[in-house]
Structures are given as structure tokens and as C-alpha cells.
Amino acid sequence: MMKNMSSIQSRFGAHLKKLRLEAGLSQEAFADKCGLDRTYVSGIERGVRNPTLEVIHVLAKGLGKEMKGLFDFDGDA
């Protein structure tokens, strides 16, 4: 079960990074926009941090997306 959890964290993080880059935002600019520390955003993108639903909501708002869009990574490689 825990192996699966780290996999979903890694996939979520990779998808978040992809969306951030598509939005043309540096990690620092995105973190500032969300009111989060850049190192925390980095940890999420690398799959080592497990963001709460509240943080995921803030990330989605920072990207101008609905929360569900942050989980739409089944089509990602």
C-alpha cells in the first residue's frame, strides 16, 4: 500500500510540475502566487511531500484550474 502511495505522490507531483511549466511559471513565482514556500512546492513536485486537500486547493487556484484538473494525470507518461 505505501509503495502505491509514493507512486501517486510522484505522479501528482510530476503532473503539477507539467501544469506549472505550461502556465509559464517558475517554481518560485508559482510558490509566491500560492503563498507557499518554494522548497515545499519543490517537495510536492518531486513526490516527497504529501500535500493536504487545503494545499491542493491553493495549488489549483494558483494555476487557475479546478482541483480535479490536478488529478487528471492518467494520460501522462
TrEMBL record:
Looking at the keywords, is Transcription regulation present?
yes
Pfam hit, one: HTH_3
Coiled-coil spans in chain: none
Provide this UniProt record's keywords sorted from A to Z.
DNA-binding, Transcription, Transcription regulation
Lineage: superkingdom: Bacteria
Occurrences of domain HTH cro/C1-type (ranges): 16-70
Gene3D superfamilies for this protein: lambda repressor-like DNA-binding domains
Record's PANTHER family? Answer: HTH-TYPE TRANSCRIPTIONAL REGULATOR (PTHR46797), HTH-TYPE TRANSCRIPTIONAL REGULATOR SUTR (PTHR46797:SF23)
Q: Protein name, please? A: HTH cro/C1-type domain-containing protein
Source organism per UniProt:
Pseudocitrobacter corydidari
